[in-house]
Amino acid sequence: MQIQMVDLKGQYEKIKLEVDAAMAEVINNTQFIKGPQVKAFEDNLAAYLGVRNVIACANGTDALQIAMMALDLKPGDEVIVPAFTYVATSEVIALLGLVPILVDVDSETFCIDTHKIESKISVRTKAIVPVHLFGQCANMEEVIGIANKHNLFVIEDTAQAIGSRWKGMMNDELGIMKGEVSNNVSSNNLPSETTHHSSFIIHNSAAGSMGHIGTTSFFPSKNLGCYGDGGALMTNDDALAKKIRMICNHGQSVQYVHEVIGVNSRLDSLQAAVLNVKLKYLKEYENARRQAAAWYDEELGSIPGIVIPKRNVNSTHVFHQYTIQLEGIDRDALRKYLAEKGIPSMVYYPMALHQQKAYEIYNVAKEGFPVSEMLCKRVLSLPMHTEMTQEMVQEICAAIAAF
């Protein structure tokens, strides 16, 4: 059988009639930019996540940059990010003249190690960006508690974990949304209306809904992916949402009236139409991925040298990736062996951020991030998508066992 890392064709064929009809409606109406499908999708995703506002944009990288612009971060401000993540998380920090401050990650969940955050906070630190890597939430109770203690913003990178939920619970006094979120943002750059929140308790909260701003990507291979590029920002603060919407649209609230410096970042109506269809199936997609992960666990759990993914007991896992760790196994040789049998695999990520040449200017190459460095040598992601069958998983695992 043909095994793929991601089977978008198989997924499309199951919803082809709905997707084709939705796209045809956009083409017939010719409202390709800011069509009604965009607003409908924003409202539908907000309801799905339980967040007050969703603002669609062109891609997930834009979403991160716009979030930092909306929070009025200035050149020289420091932003804390995990060392083991995709480069987009730190890329936008550098583009805005901010300074990425790297923190090592937890060896089991791959998310930022919250025990190491406070040692990296300085008077210049303004925000923390927890990345919900591979499909489960970072420890948001700890992140938000630290952020409140030091008066920092929290920007969630949810590109790989849309639909994941943090099941922990925290006291009112730790709630990051207590009072006015926009109090920490320059009043000169915010609309006058401000939303009040008396308290905010994290309990069964969706990834992207817990910090000041959540961001996500709709890249085709994501759990909720469109047929091109797309992204979105989420926030429970109405004033912040209004500013974000302005920034996405050249900084204007009405045409030709520009209140803030903005960018041009829009989700096309065609992509919104696709996402509106696929959002209806997101729960089904999550369950399919969890089932595939359970099959992998069963087949791989007893093979020496294979460490199956650890689940955070306080977070659900939506398995954007199924990433194992190899102990005493030649990863390159294993990948070659699998490829010869028609089985793809990927390494996310072969280099940590501090090892990238682009970030040498921040003098992080001399700093040690032992867990991130170890993971870069040991991780291997196996095929994972909504069309996985038990037979596919068994074939993959049998090949690994044979190797």
Structure description:
With 403 residues, the chain is of the alpha/beta class. It folds into two domains: 266 residues, Aspartate Aminotransferase, domain 2, CATH 3.40.640; 121 residues, Aspartate Aminotransferase, domain 1. Helices cover 34% and strands 13% of the residues. The protein has eleven helices and 14 strands. A seven-stranded mixed beta sheet has the order 1-9-8-5-4-2-3, with helices on both faces. A three-stranded antiparallel beta sheet has the order 12-13-14. A two-stranded antiparallel sheet has the order 6-7. Helix 2 runs parallel beside helix 7. The longest helix is centred in the first third of the chain and has 22 residues. It is globular and about 65 Å long. About 8% of the residues have low confidence.
- Look up the CATH topology of the largest domain: Aspartate Aminotransferase, domain 2
Strand order of the largest sheet: 1-9-8-5-4-2-3
Number of domains: 2
> Can you say what the CATH homologous superfamily of the largest domain is?
Type I PLP-dependent aspartate aminotransferase-like (Major domain)
Protein topology:
Elements: H1 8-29, H2 36-49, E1 53-57, H3 60-70, E2 78-82, H4 88-95, E3 99-103, E4 125-128, H5 140-150, E5 153-157, E6 165-166, E7 205-206, E8 213-217, E9 231-235, H6 238-248, E10 252-254, E11 257-258, H7 269-279, H8 282-300, E12 306-307, E13 322-326, H9 331-340, H10 370-378, E14 379-382, H11 390-402
Parallel strand pairs: 2-3, 2-4, 4-5, 5-8
Antiparallel strand pairs: 1-9, 6-7, 8-9, 10-11, 12-13, 13-14
Helix pairs in contact: 1-7, 2-7, 3-4, 3-6, 8-11
